[in-house]
Amino acid sequence: MTNNLKFSHKILLAASLVVIAAFSLFTLYNDYLQRNAIRADLESYLHEMGEVTASNISNWLSGRILLVENVAQSVARDASSEVLTGLLEQKVLTSTFDFTYLGSADGEFTMRPDDEMPADFDPRTRPWYKDAMAAGGSTLTEPYIDAASGELIITIASPAKAAGVAAGDLSLNTLVEIINLLDLDGIGYAFLISADGKILVHPDKSLVMKNLSEVYPQNTPRISSDFSETELNGEERILTFAPVKGLPSVNWHVGLSIDKDAAYSMLSEFRASAIVATIIAVVLIMLLLSMLISVLMQPLNVMGKAM
Q1: Residue 220: which residues within 8 A CB-CB, separation 6 or more?
Q2: At 137, is the pLDDT very low, low, confident or very high (cuts 50, 70, 90)?
Q3: Can you give the pTM of this predicted structure?
Q4: Could you give the CA distance from residue 60 to residue 57 in angstroms, rounded to a whole number?
Q5: Which has fewest Cβ within 10 Å: 220, 231, 255, 285?
């Protein structure tokens, strides 16, 4: 009888191990398939969202570059004070730019809305003037702190031939809005970054103007369309980048950062379901085998009593 019980226990144990092994292999295989499928969907989704956002930024800035270029071309044809003032006071410019201005080749500076400048101010010494003249075409500056407003702005500048350089200052508020519109289904956010790793626009304002290597000192992400995995504030993040095409003189990218655990949450749910299914299967198999063994053992027990 004791031997029979030991034998039945061995059968139950062996059956349980077979079921656990089978379900484990099934779980590992499906885990592999699920992980690859989630990653493929994630790559496709992030690349699409990055390209759309980069295109929106490019289109928004391109329209404003055209406005400045139109001013530069008009001034190049006629740089008289009356024409210049009329151009800079156009509603389309005053409603689009914080300031629109012309730095002339002789050092004169005309700006609308009008504001008092330092007595020794010479537009020819300013980076936007030098860059536009050197490039011989329109240029964009990287964001910088405006001395008047204390806010981050960018300057679009375009040479007006012998008349000098026309330019306009843009607040980054609209760029921030475009970036923040992309919430990535609540699992991440977008930001704007230069090719050298400087963060230009970010939901966390404390990170603006910092370098990627400062924010991610370990496993600094690569600025490319490939996925990079790193850690921020104790959370594992997945990052990828999409170039903002068609902008003069700057090389910017839209960065996408998502929470890795949130992105792969379906995989965790699948694993939990697989573990529960394995436990249920083992319990059911053990119950069925116990019943079967007890039925098979009854004749042996009867024969033992008869002897």
Answers
A1: 197, 212, 213, 230
A2: very high
A3: 0.77
A4: 5
A5: 231
